[in-house]
Amino acid sequence: MSTESTRKWRKAHPEKSRKQSRLDALVRSGLNREVARQYLTIRENVFICDICQQKCPSGNNLALDHNHKTKEIRGLLCVNCNRGLGNFKDSILLLGKAIEYLK
Fold first, then answer.
1. In angstroms, rounded to a whole number, what is the distance separating the alpha carbons of residues 65 and 85?
2. What is the DSSP letter of 10?
3. Is residue 65 domain-shared with residue 77, that is, in the same domain?
4. Would the pTM of this model clear 0.85, i.e. be above it?
5. How many Å apart are CA 82 and CA 90, to the nearest integer?
6. In terms of residue numbers, what domain contains 2?
7. How many structural domains comprise the chain?
8. Is residue 84 located within the same domain as residue 102?
9. Run of H or E residues at 17
């Protein structure tokens, strides 16, 4: 498909386009296409963060959280929880120190 025809298709089919984009992102992150498709089917209508159990405050879709070393999917997170883990560099040690600090 040409760039223009792709753009037209996406505009005419926003939901299908969004699903395809998420599937492509999972495959780029290292998942096999069929596993990625199954994961998205299971989580398709889930809009609650796996950590805080709230809807994403930004109104965006939840972020697909994964281990950057192993590519293993951990779950779907709101923007705040996803950034929080990123800010602590996914370190259990740093997160533990933050918990102690809060106590």
1. 9
2. H
3. yes
4. no
5. 10
6. 1-45
7. 2
8. yes
9. helix 14-28
